[in-house]
Write a structure and sequence with these properties.
Shape: globular
Order of helices and strands: HEHEEHEHEE
Largest sheet: 3 strands, mixed
Distance between the termini: 33 Å
Number of helices: 4
């Protein structure tokens, strides 16, 4: 981790590539938050298979937060427990994909009064 932090602080590094979000962010590991803060402080992008995540943008911070919650949800939910996530109007598809990838079931989104998919629920198996 220390070597990665040193590399990020160099001027020539513009992005870090990871195979999946959980390899870069584990909510139970405080040093991962240090890494995310370093990415933000140095304007370094986090490159994931589905595209870059800019932690300096409002959307990037929100997506990173949602992914951190989704990654850790199975560890904190009781069996058959439900997770309800409020998210951006254009994020239901991504949130659904992440929830299914983590093994949650009965995933479905709900529309707000304006007709936008704004909340997604999922149940732990």
């Amino acid at each position: 981790m220390q070597n990665l932090l040193k590399l990020i602080e160099r001027n020539g590094i513009h992005g870090v590539v990871v195979r999946e979000f959980s390899r870069g962010m584990r909510p139970e590991n405080f040093s991962d938050y240090v890494l995310f803060q370093a990415l933000q402080d140095t304007n370094t992008l986090l490159y994931l298979p589905d595209g870059p995540l800019d932690l300096n943008s409002k959307t990037g911070k929100l997506v990173a937060g949602l992914r951190a919650i989704i990654e850790s949800a199975p560890d904190y939910l009781e069996r058959d427990g439900w997770l309800l996530l409020e998210h951006g109007a254009d994020q239901a598809e991504e949130v659904t994909r992440e929830l299914v990838a983590r093994g949650l079931r009965h995933v479905r989104s709900h529309r707000d009064l304006a007709g936008h998919e704004r909340m997604t629920e999922a149940q732990r198996a």
